[in-house]
Amino acid sequence: MAQANDLRKGMCIRYNGNVAIVLEVMHRTPGNLRAFVQAIIRYIGTGKSADVRFGSTDKVETVDIQRTPVEFSYKDNQGFHFMDPESYETVTLDEKLLVEAKDYLVENLRVEVLYVEGKAAQVEVPASVTLKVTESAEGVRGDSANNVMKTATLETGLVVNVPLFIKEGELVKIDTRTGTYMGRA
After folding, report:
1. Cα–Cα distance between 175 and 178 in angstroms, integer?
2. What is the CATH number of domain 2-62?
3. Could you read off the pLDDT of 137-180 as tens digits, one per residue?
4. Given this model, what pLDDT does residue 5 score?
5. Same CATH topology for 65-124 and 128-184?
6. pLDDT, tens digit, for every residue of 97-113?
7. Regarding the domain with residue range 65-124, which homologous superfamily does it belong to in the CATH classification?
8. How far is CA 23 from CA 87, 90, 151, in A?
9. Residue 80, SS3 per DSSP
10. What is this structure's pTM?
11. Dihedrals φ, ψ of 95, to 5°?
12. What are all long-range contacts of 134-140, with beta carbons under 8 Å and residues at least 24 apart?
């Protein structure tokens, strides 16, 4: 058992008898009222998210999780296929578990799969990934008075805003937490 103040993103808890993963945590102290912890959790069994509020001294039951590093192999109609680099075993995960992670998956990308009570719960991608620009409009000369951006489609289908000088075929670095352009790779 842990206190609600000890909750962190990525932790796994048991809430209302169901196992849930903590997606976001905010500690609030509104004026002269008591402090509380507001958390966004996703239930592993159903995949639904909920916004819950705990008193800062409430006890929360934590659940042990196992993180397994794997490499993304390919996607087909059965799901997303990952390979364990040590044992060469393949794991197939459903698209529901990947949420936003599917926008950043390229072949041989190392990710971590979170297992809770023996079931795959979530896929964690690195903080940044390098992706190839597959489609981008040409920047018009003279449009560069300020930091002007244009849209570009990446190899995974993700659409991001990039500076005018980025051309098709270039590799760009993308922040996976915000989905924004970080720079050339």
Report:
1. 6
2. 2.30.30.30
3. 887 666 556 778 889 999 999 999 998 888 899 999 999 888 89
4. 86
5. yes
6. 787 788 899 999 999 98
7. Nucleic acid-binding proteins (2.40.50.140)
8. 30, 27, 28
9. strand
10. 0.72
11. -65, -25
12. 134/168, 135/168, 136/162, 136/166, 136/167, 136/168, 138/167, 139/163, 139/164, 139/165, 140/164
92 vs 79, 81, 111, CA distance in Å?
A: 6, 4, 14
Domain boundaries, the chain: 2-62, 65-124, 128-184
Tokens 């609600």 — which residue? 4
What percent helix, strand, coil does the chain show, rounded to 5? 5, 55, 40
Spatial distance between the Cα atoms of 49 and 47, rounded to a whole number of angstroms:
7
Q: Do residues 30 and 48 make contact, with C-beta atoms less than 8 angstroms apart?
A: no
Q: What is the DSSP track for 27-69?
A: EE--TTSPPEEEEEEEETTT--EEEEEEETT-EEEE--EEEEE
- In CATH, the architecture of 128-184 is Beta Barrel (2.40)
CA-nearest of 106, 100, 107, 155 to 123 is 100
Amino acid letter for position 14? R
| Residue that has been written with the tokens 């993304």 in this structure | 72
